[in-house]
Amino acid sequence: MKLFRRTFLSLSALILPLFIVGSAIIYFTFRYVIYEEADEFLTYEMERLVEYHRQYQDLPDYHRVAEIIAGQKVEKPYFRDTLILEPSDNEMVPHRDLVFSIHHKGEDFMIVLRHLIPGKDDLLEGTLLITAGVMLLMVVALVLMVSYLSGRIWRPFYQTVRLLSGYRISQPPPAFPKTNIEEFSSLNQTVAGLLQKMNGDYQRTRDFNANASHELQTHLALIRANTEQLLNLPPGDPSFPEKLRNIQNATIKLSGVQKSLLLLSRIGNQEFSNAVDLELKDYLTASLDLFREAIELRGIRLTTRVEACPLRMDPGLAEILVTNLVKNAVKHNVEGGFIEVTLNRRELVIANSGLPYDGNPSGLMERFVKGTQGNMGIGLAIVKQICDLHRMEIGYTITEKTLHTLKISFPGL
């Protein structure tokens, strides 16, 4: 059922009780006014007759009054209702009487003045006709107003519905029309936010599937090839242990890829929402201690300038952030290289030596970008997604082809 029809039926259901109550009010109002006017007319007529008797000392003619009854007296004038048969219609017709007394020539006379008033059936018929006319006018006005309002005021709503009907999740979210109606503006903002999240979820799912398919297939192909070779090797072949090591390394890498992809998906879905006040210095120091043995084994010179850096973020993401940064600086370094770590309230900067790289440094933060030594992994993509989630600014520069500098600024935290 369309909104217009539902609105009309709802308002019509409210009009019916108003029709009944309004009819009763009109009926009793008319009745009161009719009696008031009849009593006023009879009172004026009584005063005129009393004044006539005072001036001329004579009773009125019979055709001027309903009844003149000699020998009866009333203490004070009073009104009454009476029914009189109408011979032509054979119907009892209501009248309003005013009864009063006049003392004439030593004798009391009771005089009855009579005035015709509408009957209850006539009054009810008139009330219903008037009420029905007013209600009909209201219904017509209501139809016109609802049609106007639905076509003008509800126009932004219908525009939003049309945009949603033609929207496909693979497309960017549409731009909804601006409106000064608060409810529709709030609706558009809410729907736009939902579509933005749906589109982001879709893109992440598509990227996840593409990355998972590519990376998992690579390692599975390696495992399958080595397994086939093992099956074809004669017993006691000296290459047997090497093939097993290849399979083991492939499974380890496969497990790492699966964990990284799931972590990236969880970050994108904002499953880490336990934001607390923490000290990033503690997490960075712990991460450097974790990789200190690897740093010493490769002869890498480590220089740190670490100051206090209070932040508000999820503790798990803080640990993942600094761990991936330090791991990346160690993993992609060179023998006898260096790592310089700077942390303060404004920024975290990690500079390290590395292999020559001629490409765009920002591309290194994409998933599974290829470097000169093969796949660069997904660590920096996780770092970038954490920074985007917390509105941190991240930049990657390479100078002289071998000096890698990654800088994270926290202006909004």
Brief overview:
The protein is an alpha+beta fold and 413 residues long.
Q: Which helices and strands, and how do they pair?
A:
Blueprint: H1 3-56, E1 67-70, E2 78-86, E3 91-104, E4 107-116, H2 120-152, H3 155-165, H4 182-232, H5 240-268, E5 276-279, H6 280-290, H7 292-297, E6 301-306, E7 310-313, H8 315-331, E8 338-343, E9 347-353, E10 370-371, E11 374-375, H9 379-389, E12 393-399, E13 403-409
Parallel strand pairs: 6-8
Antiparallel strand pairs: 1-4, 2-3, 3-4, 5-7, 8-9, 9-13, 10-11, 12-13
Indicate the proportion of strand residues.
15-25%
Oligomer: single chain
Which ranges are low-confidence, i.e. pLDDT below 50, for 5 or more consecutive residues? 369-376
Radius of gyration: 49 Å
C-alpha geometry? rod-shaped
Count helical runs.
Answer: 9
Let me know the average pLDDT: 82
Strand order of the largest sheet: 6-8-9-13-12
> Got a strand count?
13
Instruction: Note the main sheet.
Output: 5 strands, mixed
Distance between the termini: 50 Å
> Which class best fits the helix and strand makeup?
alpha+beta
Helix content: 40-55%
Give the SSE string: HEEEEHHHHEHHEEHEEEEHEE
In words, what does this structure look like?
The protein is α+β, with helices and mostly antiparallel strands and 413 residues long. It has helices spanning 3-56, 120-152, 155-165, 182-232, 240-268, 280-290, 292-297, 315-331, 379-389; strands at residues 67-70, 78-86, 91-104, 107-116, 276-279, 301-306, 310-313, 338-343, 347-353, 370-371, 374-375, 393-399, 403-409. The two termini are 50 Å apart. Residues 369-376 have low confidence and may be disordered.
